[in-house]
Amino acid sequence: MNKIGFNVLAWSAVVSDDLKPIIERLKTIGYDGVEFFVGSPDEKAYREIGQFTAQTGLDTTTVFVLGPDENPIDPDAGVRARALDKIKWTIDRSHDLGAKVICGPFHSAFSTFAKRSPTEDEYNRSAEILQQAGEHAAQAGIILTPEALNRFECYLCNTMDQLIHLIKKVNHPNVKAMFDTHHANIEEKKLGDALRKVAPYLGHVHISENDRGTPGSGHVPWDDTFSTLAEIGFKGWLTIEGFTRNDPDFANSIGVWREFSQPWEMAENGYQFIKEMGEKHGL
């Protein structure tokens, strides 16, 4: 069975001691790992929580986003340089946490639009930054997995076809692709077909319901998803990413205006759902 993780953004976007009892309870439920959002500036906290999580017996992965002033596809070389600096800083903090995988839509700035379709120049700029970031990640033994987002949050990479186009341009062993069932449910025709396309490049998977609530409670085609993951032989993380309004600043930044599921209901029932689907489909 693949390792199962849970993203603590359901509680907080800040890495701090407040997460310690949450980490301990996730271990009790049966999770193999915890996914943290890298963004808060307290560097010491990343090292301390990384040590605590390891002592608890859990592995870690991380996620982050970039803003418009640190956009890898901006025509301004200075903005692109800030993007690379932020990605390198995130790699260092992820290393402090003990993570081996970093995911997120860091191919471009989150929710930053140009009022047109993406250009080949933008893919080339993104690829150049990600290739340099891949070199830094290799030194830390970390895999970067850029994520395709839905059209309301991003315009560079909405589909696996676009993400594959970018990953091929990057052409670095430490830069792979991520698949998120929430975004794919919006943008792909068939989730199984999309997974087959991205299989040679796939490095991380988010298990996310159509409304960001508890996996299995909505209309994502889960049988197709899990059977295809088994078919392509995916051995990486299956990490639940669900959102709440527990951290209002983060919730406001991503357009979460209501509760989809309570965090512990999502964690407990979501874990059982993944275990059942994994056993059903031979993952």
TrEMBL record:
Residue ranges of domain Xylose isomerase-like TIM barrel in the record: 24-252
UniProt-listed InterPro entries: IolE/XylAMocC-like, Xyl_isomerase-like_sf, Xyl_isomerase-like_TIM-brl
Pfam (any one): AP_endonuc_2
Cited SUPFAM superfamilies: Xylose isomerase-like
PANTHER family: HYDROXYPYRUVATE ISOMERASE, INOSOSE DEHYDRATASE
UniProt protein name: D-psicose/D-tagatose/L-ribulose 3-epimerase
Originating organism: Cyclobacterium lianum
Classification of source organism: Bacteria, Pseudomonadati, Bacteroidota, Cytophagia, Cytophagales
